[in-house]
Amino acid sequence: MMWNSARAWGYVAHDPFDGLVLPKRGLVQTVTFSLDEINRILDSASEPFRTFYAILAETGIRGGEICALRVTVPATIRTYPRFPSPSQSSRII
Fold first, then answer.
1. What residue ranges do the domains of the chain occupy?
2. What is the reported pTM?
3. Longest CA–CA separation in the chain, Å
4. pLDDT tens digits, the chain, 93 residues: what are they?
């Protein structure tokens, strides 16, 4: 462990983790939807939530990740898809 090395080399004199008691973690309950339930959710949702839920269902990404996506409208209509370069900082749909 890095802290043990720092103490052995004389950079620190104590171990801040000494006596630390971590809480016990119980089983995590996850909620999953059947295909029928997903279709009912999508049918009852209005835009823009329908698109939001559809992307979540199809990709499995987290809510925060979908909120970080940016939608752009090209200035001109092209006949081929535009893909972002790896150097761009945000994702484009």
1. 29-72+84-93
2. 0.47
3. 66
4. 688 888 889 888 887 878 889 888 888 888 888 888 989 999 999 988 888 888 888 888 888 888 888 777 665 555 555 555 555 555 555
